Amino acid sequence: MRAQCGLLWIALLHASGSADALRCDGRVVDRGDHAIEVRERCGEPYWTDGYSEFLIAGENGPLEQRIERTIEAWYYNFGPNRLLRKLVFIDDRLVREETLGHGYATLGGDCRLDALPAGTPAGVIVARCGVPAQRRQRYGDLTRRDERGIARRRVVRREDWVYDIGRDRDLRLLRILDGRLQGIERLDR
Predict the structure, then answer these.
(1) Do strands 171-177 and 180-187 pair parallel, antiparallel, or not at all (unpaired)?
(2) Fewer CB within 10 Å: N-end or C-end of the chain?
(3) DSSP-derived 3-state class of residue 43
């Protein structure tokens, strides 16, 4: 009897969702939800980041099949009393949710560029520092093959973001690779 009650309690906890599950418009946003459902519940994200990749079956064989997948990351700031959220979609279906620390009362109001560690997501940089003054993108190609002969070919996106942090201060050049900070340089005025 005690084991049955314990199992029932665990099932109820699991069914109610985790305490930090994202709720928008009174409903839980969950894996598998379509992008349009999430947008209707949560509104427009403050920042989006996306790219495509090709799944290639039979690469270099007599029959090669390519299937394009789109990957998007949506960033939401629900204010200082809630967590920043990153939602990752593949082909318009939610596949992953990440929490990124506490949100902000205003976007761009907590900019300390020199304190940002490598790997910081682009959406967190925008939340802390606002949109860069200048942004340039370049693209490359990355192919990974698995043991079954399936290749994943995707575009690698390199970006240079320039922030002007004040009239009497140097500019900062942020190197972003696939939506994550790689490094920061000072640029003279």
Answers:
(1) antiparallel
(2) N
(3) coil
**Whether the predicted pLDDT of 65 surpasses 60:** yes
Q: What is the 3-state secondary structure (H, E, C) of 113-180?
A: HHHCCCCCEHHHHHHHHCCCCEEEEEEEEEEEECCCCEEEEEEEEEEEEEEECCCCCCEEEEEEECCE
What residue segments make up the domains of the chain, in order of their start? Answer: 23-187
Measured CA to CA, the distance from residue 179 to residue 45 in angstroms comes to 16
E-assigned strand segments in 2-63: 23-24, 27-28, 47-57
Average pLDDT of span 66-90? 93
Residue labelled with tokens 């910081």: 120
C-alpha to C-alpha distance for 143 and 124, rounded to whole angstroms: 28
For residue 26, pLDDT over 80 is answered with yes
CA distance 2 to 157: 55
Over its C-alpha atoms, the chain yields an Rg (Å, rounded) of 21
Measured CA to CA in angstroms, residue 117 lies from 92, 104, 154, 186 at distances of: 30, 19, 25, 15
